[in-house]
Design brief:
This protein is α/β, with parallel strands linked by helices. Helices cover 49% and strands 12% of the residues. The chain has a four-stranded parallel β-sheet, sandwiched between helices. Strand 1, helix 2 and strand 2 form a beta-alpha-beta unit. Helix 1 packs across helix 2. The longest helix is centred in the first third of the chain and has 15 residues. It is globular.
């Protein structure tokens, strides 16, 4: 998608989700999110609980402790521009390796070419940097207990990006949450364990009909 200049904080992103629901005439929806998108889903559920049914979060990346040191350092003016200028599009193959239990199966030449093209889009670096600076996870992570929607958490046992212990932490913090940990699976359960993941999602959402 286009990379516009502006705010990328979770509240703004949540407002965009709600605005999209308004635009297409959806009063209430289930939310399924992955990685940092989980923060947006939780924010939507906090800001408009009457409009959210059930929630599924895969590999939720929502805690300050999950942010690597390089991204934390990027919040400092000047340092972020330097880090993203030198590192943002570099070592993609190594960084992708951390996301999969079977990286050789998923990190293909086509995937790498598409990823490099996405990173080369005008404004991509600035947008990514602004997103990191707008996260404010240290404060937001204190409020996840306010989410009243039922939440299904799905983590890969071998996820090196979000890591399962954070799923256990989040499950303990959310009032109505269940946690599923899939074996032989990294940060993308919807790919590496597609059938199991789809089954969990459909079963969880079907509970809303009963």
């Amino acid at each position: 998608s286009s990379k516009y200049a502006g705010d990328y904080d979770p509240d703004t992103q949540a407002d965009l989700v709600l605005a999209l629901m308004d635009h297409v005439g959806v009063e209430r929806a289930h939310l399924v999110a992955h990685s940092m998108g989980s923060l947006i889903a939780l924010t939507v559920a906090q800001r408009a609980p009457e409009r959210v049914g059930r929630v599924v979060l895969a590999g939720a990346w929502v805690y300050e402790d999950q942010v690597p040191w390089s991204l934390r350092a990027s919040r400092t003016p000047g340092m972020g521009e330097l880090i993203f200028g030198l590192w943002y599009a570099e070592n993609l193959d190594w960084r992708f390796t951390l996301s999969f239990y079977e990286p050789s199966r998923w990190i293909t030449e086509e995937v790498m070419d598409r990823s490099k093209a996405a990173l080369a889009l005008p404004g991509a670096r600035a947008t990514a940097l602004q997103t990191i600076r707008d996260l404010d996870l240290a404060q937001r992570q204190l409020d996840y207990g306010r989410v009243t929607a039922p939440v299904q958490l799905v983590y890969g046992r071998d996820d090196q990006v979000a890591r399962p212990p954070y799923g256990e932490r989040l499950a303990g913090q959310l009032p109505h949450a269940e946690l599923a940990i899939l074996p032989q699976c990294g940060h993308f359960p919807m790919l590496e364990r597609m059938h199991e993941f789809n089954g969990i999602v459909l079963d969880w959402l079907a509970e809303d009909e009963r």
